[in-house]
Design a protein that fits this description.
This protein is of the alpha/beta class. It is built from eleven helices and ten strands. The termini are far apart.
Amino acid sequence: MTVPVMQSPADIGKRLLTPGQAPFLGVIMLDTRFPRPPGDLGNLATYAVPVNIRVVRGIWPDKVVQSAAGLHAGRVGPAFAAVARALAREGAAAITTTCGFLVLLQKELQAAVKVPVITSSLMLLPGLLRQQARVGVLTISAGKLGREHLRAAGVPRERLADVIVQGVDPASEFATRILGNQPAMDLAQAGADVVAAAIALKAREPALTDVVLECTNMPPYCDAITAATGLKTWCLLDDTRLFKAWPQPAPAPAVAEAAPAGDAAR
């Protein structure tokens, strides 16, 4: 079944917190129109804490799902830093984004504000690698996700080979609809595409037990991934650094506490 947009930027704008209603989790979102079902990090219903989502106009998925050179050539950093500063002024207790590739801007965004910034679920990798011999990553584009993204996430150079990256099929419903920023998507097929990538990852590395979902549009399919592969999934919601301002944060494992946050909040 192909479904229409579930939350357009205009719809989100109607539900944002008003200034002074703090603390909240600040979410910097790309300018997107594809469907975002519950579980997607761009859907307000996903969160168990107050959230303020800000859309960076004109920054579409294909502008940030890039190599380091491609992202920096697009000069998107200043736009994201400006939004981060605005969220911090309004009372954000922590700030995140809706694209794992933005880990390349981790240092720049953290330098712009004094509250914690966790740009990507990839920042869970250092902590997981301290406990696992190898860790998997599911991404929307294996062709674009490179060593520079892993290093920006804090993965030690000597452990880069222990991160096993698997992308979804570039011609799949999931990849083409999201990267093409299309207004409708067959969610059942998109879920099947993500699960197929997880099955391929497990076939490549049968000993894997954990997989990080780089793409923030993948968490709606966590249960399906685990059911098909037995892999434990990790996403941004599992990073405890985002939820320290709340006495009863969304459930998150202790491993995230141990993972370095790039430049620490000052």
